[in-house]
């Protein structure tokens, strides 16, 4: 097909990457806004969810927030935020209102997977381990920091991974409301009937998405206190709690998938 | 000039531009209903498409464990591709049509549904399966009469997730001019038309909730034995 050849030519053309509004500058924009939003959502969502999980309260809210997040179209929320009179200046550009609207929408959509997974992660720590911690005379805070948190890390990370995928997808959609990012190259391509440009943008966005997912998967494996391939990592930490840990890993697998 | 003054601006005129405006809903009823019908059509078609492909895939994955990880990895990889990027990638094959949106969203639904089918079939206890075999059930009848009904709660949970997220994602179809209510939202953003924007957004959420409730009711009808256990 001719379109594929044109797309390939567009991708190979260096000026499409380096020019103002080309791939590189758009990628930097999108990565910046995505990771800022993810960082903000983690800073707000994780402590609350972990704390609720530690107390064992608010489960209904923590679980159902994901369902609510799913039902609200990202596009609709972005559109609403852009059309509001606040925040930001009236300037309809990448760093004006559309940029801020994108940041807020991204943060909001990153929260549900973070909160649900972090809450479930702490709740999934087996009762025997909690009781053992109590029996050893650990205070609530000690139990949280030294038992529950390390054991729930893999599942928390899988929440971060889901949130990252969600944030990247949403920040692409932001282009539909003139927000920053590579999505702009796609929407511009479609608006001007240069489909090769749209396709090229789509290829770049998809490739970055897959790379981010892979990196997140690697990170998830790194924080796992019970590495699936047992060889090689931190043998002395492994000895201390070796018996019950596999259970947690199993539980994490069934929920975090 | 007097002509302008005499004509009191309705709540959706450029000068007022209110968020909630019944008069808009009244005046543009046809447009809204058309968009809603298109939205529902695309959503249902995508779900059916996803179901039709997910079921055989799940059966294959179950029969051949070696293929299972490949199928799951492929569908997960597909799921990480943002919707705004997936649609352009389909355009060379299906053009700027509703088919593009249906296939794209169907592929997303597929990921959730394959998992749901696999988990559901796996949740059937082995002793139940064995006693069915002992009663003389062949593999086809075993699947339809024993395994599928018992897997239904898990499958329906997956179907609910897939349906709700498909309703929301359909709005992105506005990129190829087939987004149902998304077309209204996008028009509303471009023209700064608040009533249109909010009406479409609210209808989207209501549609998602409505379909979810319908699925819950269907599940109750399909699995009457779970009612006593849960409520």
Automatic annotation (TrEMBL), chain A:
Biased composition (Basic and acidic residues) is annotated at: 236-257
Classification via InterPro entries:
ABC_transp_perm/SBD, MetI-like, MetI-like_sf
Q: Spell out where the chain crosses the membrane.
A: 31-52, 59-80, 100-122, 162-186, 198-219
Outline the segment boundaries, as ranges, of region: Disordered: 228-257
Q: Which UniProt keywords apply?
A: Membrane, Transmembrane, Transmembrane helix, Transport
Q: Which coarse location class applies to the principal site listed for this UniProt protein?
A: membrane
Q: Which GO terms describe its biological process?
A: glycine betaine transport; transmembrane transport
Provide the topology term for how it sits in the membrane.
Multi-pass membrane protein
Localization, per the record, is: Cell membrane; Membrane
Ranges where the ABC transmembrane type-1 domain occurs? 27-216
Q: Does the keyword Membrane apply?
A: yes
Gene3D superfamilies xrefs? MetI-like
Q: Which GO terms describe its cellular component?
A: plasma membrane
Q: Pfam families per the record?
A: BPD_transp_1
Task: Specify the superkingdom.
Answer: Bacteria
UniProt record similarity statement: Belongs to the binding-protein-dependent transport system permease family.
Q: State the protein's name.
A: Osmoprotectant transport system permease protein
Automatic annotation (TrEMBL), chain B:
- Which residues span the membrane? 40-59, 71-90, 96-118, 150-177, 197-217
* Lineage top rank: taxon: Bacteria
Q: Where in the cell is it found?
A: Cell membrane; Membrane
Note the InterPro entries from the entry: ABC_transp_perm/SBD, MetI-like, MetI-like_sf
**Keyword Transport included in the entry's annotation:** yes
Annotated membrane topology is: Multi-pass membrane protein
GO CC, sorted alphabetically, is: plasma membrane
* The ABC transmembrane type-1 domain, residue ranges: 36-215
Does this UniProt record's set of keywords contain Cytoplasm? no
| Keyword list, A-Z | Membrane, Transmembrane, Transmembrane helix, Transport
An individual GO BP term: transmembrane transport
One of its Pfam families is BPD_transp_1
The UniProt family comment states: Belongs to the binding-protein-dependent transport system permease family.
Checking PANTHER family in the record gives: GLYCINE BETAINE/L-PROLINE TRANSPORT SYSTEM PERMEASE PROTEIN PROW (PTHR30177), OSMOPROTECTANT IMPORT PERMEASE PROTEIN OSMW (PTHR30177:SF4)
Annotated protein name in UniProt: Osmoprotectant transport system permease protein
